[in-house]
Amino acid sequence: MGEETEIGVVIPGTIAILGGGFIFCTLLLAGLPPLSGFIAKFAIIDALFDDVIIEPAAWILIALIILSGLATLIAMTRAGIDLLWTPGEDSPARLSVIEVAPIGVLLAACLALMVGAGPLYRYMEATAAALADRSSYIDIVRSAPRAGEDPS
């Protein structure tokens, strides 16, 4: 547990680093704006709104997407409280830079995805359109040399 001071309890550095990373990951998984989890949910909901008349099944899917974010937020918050913020009998182990660096790199990658969401979203839309175009795929497969044939 932290040291007692005149102001209150001091949070150990290990718990502060792991707790901050855990909170950030919780918000990512829950899909809260403006993080990358929200961008993915927004893309799905935006695609459901492309039709003029939205089917009841689409409304159900939208509600499930929003409720899944709420359920994730509640579950991860409870897990974080149990694992990180409930005082333990032993003092937390000290973290070294080699243990914290991968966490920082992954969280920085998530922030980069959030900042570069526009170009990434356009790239993913172009990829989905290319995958939906079956004729170009069929032409490439038909023009490929058969097994055992000379490719020239």
Automatic annotation (TrEMBL):
What keywords are assigned to this protein?
A: Cell membrane, Membrane, Transmembrane, Transmembrane helix
**Transmembrane is among the record's keywords:** yes
Matches recorded under PANTHER family? NA(+)_H(+) ANTIPORTER SUBUNIT D1, NADH DEHYDROGENASE
Q: Which membrane topology describes this protein?
A: Multi-pass membrane protein
- Give the source species: Novosphingobium pentaromativorans US6-1
Q: Which residues cross the membrane?
A: 15-40, 52-75, 95-115
Please state what the protein is called: Na(+)/H(+) antiporter subunit D
Compartment list: Cell membrane
